[in-house]
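yo, EVE domain-containing protein is done. seq:
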Amino acid sequence: MAYWLMKSEPDELSIEALARQDGARWDGVRNYQARNFVRAMNVGDTFFFYHSSCPQPGIAGIARITASAYPDPTALDPESHYFDTKASAEKNPWSAVDVAHVRTFSQVLGLGLLKQQAALEELPLVQKGSRLSVMPVTEAQWAAIMALAG
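structure:
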């Protein structure tokens, strides 16, 4: 089992919204490195659900992968914000996974707090210039974040 961190804007999909659903499709990843991480995910992998582009960015909870990568249908939907004019049914470069809620933290672990943790200094999230929306998390980083979450 691998660990990940995935970012979502709460107005698009929040941890609270995911908790109310049986599951959701995680789509719209449009960076090749992040897409490759999505393709590396396996059913049962868990990830930190990070709220981004909001007043209080940070880790809001945990979710798990329920279906491994498949072609992202939003790339083919002209009505979608994630539509890709170069994608086709035969050649869709983008991938999605299905996810389900595991746990909502009692409070969001803010980016400032995460940056203060020596155990997380190698986590791409806290490194200057890193804007990936999907990234791997080591077992040690996972444990450090779980300790913060209580």
